[in-house]
């Protein structure tokens, strides 16, 4: 086996909005940020009108490029903006430069464990995720194989998709196998909000017929009593699943809502991190589907581990969005029956690339599916657009932040004590 090392690690921001791995960094008026959607901030009336009001897009997209000693480059995008670039440069790069990029298991462990004192969840793990995806892209290009083949090969000829958007009838017309809609109102809007939720979901059900799979995304915004009451009020609407009803930290709460509605399906995982977070979700056996986001959860390396654990419980893994990164994973997994497409058009009624104009050949589902043959290109198969609005992070890291002092520096800069 030939010797190979990582030579360069580069990070980039993306100028403007609507491009890259931050789904919510879009223009004003987009359904994702400026339509009624219940959120954890809905308890404050001033933050209900737009999700940008409380900062859902505050970080923005960033990209990682990893270059091997033979000149081959891996590339990936995610969310994290300037803080993500800083973490890569000041912390994680030390574990990458000079190492073999094919050792993804080892590299993940080094980065994850070195950041446990401030990480374990949230932004640090999301940053590790993008580094990991860039490594998998690089591995695929080194071996001239698509990532799904490195993961064990294809388990099907086509990927089926459901669509998350504001209009389930539009999703059905576009050929998707199901639709998921955001819940507009939360507990702070009391019974009047609950009534409007039920009326809207009834309208959605009527628009797609009695049997078309209709799912509801509650975006971590409900509590246990409200969830139980809402699911009860919608029993005759044949809701396929209720997603992220509770805070990600309320794992015991899922036991209570499942006990109240054993026949209803509950899903979560989009905002959970690492195999350790998912272990607790699985052990309770109160969830019907897990939905990790590969750009947040720890990358492809950690997603494989989560999927293996879930398969032992016969719980399907249907990743949250993430475009081609998820497509390669789902194509390789018998325990992942289909994939989510997050509608990226402003009105949610047309199919556009998940990552906007960042790539020139991003696969998108047409008539509700993608042939796996479309993914049969080295790495993730994504070609960076020559007009991509990348900004080198060198511009934001120059001058570089002050590095931690070394022991010899500390001793030389000690101030003599006075008499």
List keywords for this structure.
419 residues, alpha/beta, eight-stranded mixed β-sheet, 12 strands, disordered C terminus
What do you see in this structure?
- The protein has helices spanning 31-34, 81-90, 104-114, 123-143, 147-150, 168-173, 190-208, 224-233, 251-260, 274-283, 299-312, 323-332, 407-412, and strands at residues 6-14, 61-68, 73-79, 158-164, 179-182, 214-217, 239-243, 266-268, 289-290, 339-342, 369-371, 390-392.
- The chain is α/β, with parallel strands linked by helices and 419 residues long.
- The strands form two sheets. Strands 4, 5, 6, 7, 8, 9, 10 and 11 form an eight-stranded mixed β-sheet that branches. It has a four-stranded antiparallel β-sheet with strand order 3-2-1-12, with helices on one face.
- Strand 8, helix 10 and strand 9 (289-290) form a beta-alpha-beta unit.
- The model is unreliable at 409-419 (pLDDT under 50).
Brief synopsis:
This protein is of the alpha/beta class. It contains 13 helices and 12 strands.
Question: With helices defined by DSSP (H or I, 4 residues minimum), what is the helix count?
Answer: 13
Order of helices and strands: EHEEHHHHEHEHEHEHEHEHHEEEH
Low-confidence stretches: 409-419
Taking the alpha carbons of the first and last residues, their distance comes to 65 Å
Mean residue pLDDT? 95
Instruction: Estimate the strand proportion.
Output: 5-15%
Tell me the helix content: 25-40%
Shape summary = globular
Q: How many β-strand stretches?
A: 12
Largest sheet, described in full? Answer: 8 strands, mixed
Give me the secondary-structure category. Answer: alpha/beta
| Overall radius of gyration | 22 Å
């Amino acid at each position: 086996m030939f010797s190979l090392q990582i030579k360069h690690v580069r990070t980039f921001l993306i100028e403007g909005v609507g491009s890259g791995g931050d789904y919510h960094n879009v223009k004003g008026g987009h359904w994702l940020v400026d339509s009624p959607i219940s959120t954890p901030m809905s308890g404050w009336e001033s933050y209900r009108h737009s999700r940008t009001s409380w900062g859902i897009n505050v970080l923005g997209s960033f990209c990682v490029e990893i270059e091997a000693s033979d000149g081959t480059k891996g590339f990936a995008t995610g969310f994290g903006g300037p803080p993500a670039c800083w973490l890569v440069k000041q912390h994680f790069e030390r574990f990458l430069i000079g190492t073999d990029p094919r050792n993804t298991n080892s590299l993940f462990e080094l980065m994850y464990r070195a950041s446990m004192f401030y990480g374990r969840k949230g932004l640090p793990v999301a940053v590790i995720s993008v580094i990991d995806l860039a490594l998998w892209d690089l591995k695929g290009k080194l071996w001239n194989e698509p990532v799904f083949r490195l993961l064990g090969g294809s388990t099907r000829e086509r990927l089926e998709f459901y669509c998350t958007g504001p209009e389930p009838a539009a999703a059905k017309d576009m050929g998707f196998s199901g639709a998921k809609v955001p819940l507009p109102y939360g507990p702070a809007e009391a019974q009047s909000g609950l009534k409007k939720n039920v009326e809207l979901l009834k309208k959605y059900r009527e628009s797609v017929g009695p049997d078309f799979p209709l799912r509801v995304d509650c975006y971590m915004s409900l509590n246990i009593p409200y969830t139980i009451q809402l699911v009860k009020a919608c029993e005759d609407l044949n809701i396929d699943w209720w997603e992220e009803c509770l805070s990600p930290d309320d794992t015991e709460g899922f036991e209570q809502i499942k006990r109240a509605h054993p026949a209803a399906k509950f899903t979560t995982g989009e905002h959970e991190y690492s195999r350790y977070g998912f272990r607790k979700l699985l052990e309770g056996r109160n969830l019907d589907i897990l939905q990790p986001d590969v750009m947040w959860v720890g990358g492809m390396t950690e997603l494989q581990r989560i999927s293996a654990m879930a398969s032992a419980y016969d719980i399907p893994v249907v990743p949250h969005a993430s475009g081609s990164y998820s497509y390669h994973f789902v194509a390789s997994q018998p325990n992942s029956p289909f994939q989510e497409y997050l509608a990226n058009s402003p009105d949610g009624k047309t199919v556009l690339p998940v990552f906007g104009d960042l790539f020139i050949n991003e696969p998108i589902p047409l008539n509700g599916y993608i042939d796996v043959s479309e993914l049969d290109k080295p790495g993730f198969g994504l070609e960076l657009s020559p007009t991509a609005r990348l900004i080198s992070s060198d511009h934001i890291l120059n001058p570089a932040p002050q590095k931690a002092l070394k022991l010899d520096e500390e001793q030389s800069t000690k101030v003599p004590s006075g008499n």
